[in-house]
Every structure is written in structure tokens, then in C-alpha cells.
Amino acid sequence: MSDIPAADKVYTACVLIIGNEILSGRTQDTNLAYIAQGLAQIGVVLKEARVIPDVCDTIAATVNELRAKYDYVFTTGGIGPTHDDITAECVAKAFGVQNTLHPEAHRILQSVIKPEDLNEARLRMAHTPQGATLIVNVVSRVPGFKMENVYVMAGIPRVMQAMFDAVKPTLKGGPPVLSRTVSCDLPEGIIAKGLGEVQTRYPDLDIGSYPAFRRGGGFHVSLVLRGRDAALLDRAAGEVAAMVKGLGGNPALE
Amino acid sequence: MSDIPAADKVYTACVLIIGNEILSGRTQDTNLAYIAQGLAQIGVVLKEARVIPDVCDTIAATVNELRAKYDYVFTTGGIGPTHDDITAECVAKAFGVQNTLHPEAHRILQSVIKPEDLNEARLRMAHTPQGATLIVNVVSRVPGFKMENVYVMAGIPRVMQAMFDAVKPTLKGGPPVLSRTVSCDLPEGIIAKGLGEVQTRYPDLDIGSYPAFRRGGGFHVSLVLRGRDAALLDRAAGEVAAMVKGLGGNPALE
After folding, report:
1. Are A28 and B33 an interchain contact pair (Cβ–Cβ within 8 Å)?
2. What structural domains does chain B harbor?
3. Which residues from chain B sit within 8 angstroms of residue A240, using beta carbons?
4. Diameter of chain A by CA atoms?
5. Do B16 and B75 contact (CB within 8 A), yes or no?
6. What is the pLDDT of residues A169-184, one digit of tens each?
7. Is there a contact between A82 and B52 if contact means CB atoms under 8 Å apart?
8. Could you give the CA distance from residue B199 to residue B197 in angstroms, rounded to a whole number?
9. Which residue of A156, A193, A226 is in closest CB contact with B211?
10. Cα A116 to the chain's mean position, in Å?
11. pTM, 2 dp
12. What was the ipTM of the complex prediction?
């Protein structure tokens, strides 16, 4: 998408999903889609997502690669009390600082966990890389944290969503990325040429064609136009619909 | 030198998800979990997954980075007939070869599409990087392809699954990765110490703790042990269960 004046900065982001449970296929990630939708709303361009295992060197190296490359890095997973929750110490390693007890995180834990239950494992959740600021967690209270442009969040979707929602208003972005969807009952092979021509006429929009199986059998195609200019989107969506209709289809603006 | 891999050769893989629709949050990916589970069955270690946009330079550079790093690269998405389906030409670019009409793919298309309907857009689906071999698609016939260690598959889950299922028996792997899950009704903070001790005693196993919200409220924790030695897994799972029980919980082997 290039419909932004050259003088304006485009803010970019990457999502880093940390966890063996995703790479083993045990857990179906849903955090990426949530973050992606939220970033589109505030006009931050999500450029990449990665899934990596609970391996400290990999986490540290990947965090360093990505934080240099993008304006924002959002990590999910690995900030609980068990031995496999190593994200905080690995992010500390990435930044070359100690992973230390964060006084404010400590106070939060003390406010929700009885002193006799605040064992060593739970205290690990109050440790952050030195210099980190906390990310509020209204669901289960145990905070995430932000280290420069790296936002470290939980893996449990409800908790991650609360953390991301807390962070979102603080992010610099741009005009929201809007979309229009034209539902199409013709096969992709029929509309491909005309769709490509619309894309060529609207270089500032991103037009995608997404076929899916209908439950009853056969294909259904969603033609999705994305961009920051509502009027431009409406015009292009109208051209897509007219093109489908001209080929004998029954397009519908979803 | 021998063609026989060392007995302890570990085969590694990466999944490369190509598509703006995933990074926009429009589409919830489910292909990663399917491939991950399939690879675990044949003992191939999935080390990483990436999601990247429909940008040719990014696709080509990422393919080249990953194919050098892992034994197998599985891509999903971008092999249809529309203008945004650019995976084949970008993989060709990565390998420094032409994207040309593949005679066998051409024959397959001719067998399912009437000559008058086999337009330029559809013919694009019969193009592969020079030297590629085809991946059978029993769902919609249009094939994927393999270029050295890069397996290029569709994005539509049903089609991707069919392609991956066709490829799976041809992959070299190792003993399947097995798992045991101990369901735990105690909070992570209570069992963390004991669980870490079991992990220390079983360095050949990967033990993870995965909390989730129950629908009725409160947490539920799944303690998942993964490894290739069934007897070792059973013994370690028994120790985990005994540990949870010793702390007053009611563990259950799922």
C-alpha cells in the first residue's frame, strides 16, 4: 500500500509467537489474527509473523533481528511461572541487561497472591529485563512488559488480548486500513484477468482473491480490497462488482 | 562418505505461510497446525514458521534463507490464477530459474478444464520453476510443486491438506514424536517447581505447561510431555502425575 504521502512515516510491526505448543501442532494460534486486526485499525502495517520454539538463543537472536527491522515487535507466550516460560530472561539477554525483580510487578503480584503462596516460581513472573515498563493485564493481573519497541505479552488468548488492548492506544500508527469485500460466485479463473486490471488501475490498493470451499460443495470467492482511502475503495469495489456482473456473475458487497 | 544418514540425523523443517490475508487478520491460518501434527508423526522437527506478505522480493529472499537453514520448507498460499498468486514466479526467482509451463501440469489442467476455458490466467497454474516436480492434488487436481527441498502448496486448507498428505510419505524423518498429557487442576505457580525438577531429570523430553481458561471460570493446566521414547514418556508422565497428586491435586492422564 502506497497511498500515504511520502513525508508520512509508515509504522511497521512483526508478531513473534514463542512456543513449542504451536510448532508441535498441539495449540492452534489465534493471537496473530487478533493482533493483525487491531494493528489494521490503527494503521500499523504488519509485515511479518514468526513462530519459534522455547530456545533461549533463538528467542534472543530473533528478537534482536526483528526489533532492528520493524517499529514494533509483539511477542506472545512464555511469561508464566513454569520452567518453560523463558521469554523474559531471553529478551533480557537480547538487550544485554539483567532480568531483575520489577518493583511494580512485585507489588501487583503481592496484591493478588497471599504472601505464603508467593513462591520462587511465581516471583519469576515479576521479573523483567532491567528498564522495562509494564503492560497492564486486567484479566489475571500478572503484567506483560515493554522493552523499547518490544512488547512482551502472554500466550493465553484472553490475557494476550487484554494486554494488546492496553497497549494499542499508545502506539503510533496512521490512517486505519479499511477493506471492502465483494463476494463472487464465479471461479477465480474467469475473473482473474479483469481483477488484475482493476488492481493495475488502483496501485494504491491491495486487492486479493480468496477462494474457499462452500459447505454444500463448490467454490466461493471473496475479492478483498484494502487501503486507507474509503472513496477510492468504494470506487474500486464498484468496478470489481461491475466486472463480475459483466462476466455473468452475481456479485455482492459483503 | 555414505548416502545413509547418520543414525541420529534429525530432519528439520520450516513452514512459510505466504499471504496478505493472514497478515491482515482476515483469514485465520489453520495450515500450520495441520503440517505441524503431520511432521511430528513422521519425526521431522518443525523449527520455525513464518508468515510473509505477497511481495516477490520478500518471498524469494525468505525462501532462500529458509531452504539453506532447514531440511524441508513447506510453503502455503499464492498458487492460484489471480494477480496476487505470485508464489511460483517468486520461488523461480529464488532459485534463479525461469517460471515455465510444466508439461505434466498442463496435461492435468487440460484434463479438468475445457479448452475454451483454459485462459491465460488458468494457464499460470501450470507454470512452475524449471526443474520442479509436481505435488498431486486429489481435491481440485491443480498441482503444487517441489523444487529441491521446497514444497509449494495451496493455501486453501482442504487442498493444502491433500497436497501435504501426498508429500508426507516421501519425507525422510525419524521416530515419531509422541506425547503424553497430564491434566492438572492446580495452578501453575504451585506445580512449577516440581515440574521443573521432572524436566531436569528427563533432559531428552520436552515438558510444557499450558494453562487455559475453563468455560465455567478458573484455570485448567495441561502438562504436556513430548519425546520419541514411549517408555520414558510413560515414566516421566507418571512422575508428573505423582507430583501433582502429592501437592493435593487430582491429575488425570488425558
Report:
1. yes
2. 12-170 (3.40.980.10), 178-253 (3.30.70.1130)
3. none
4. 73
5. yes
6. 999 999 999 999 999 9
7. no
8. 5
9. A156
10. 38
11. 0.95
12. 0.95
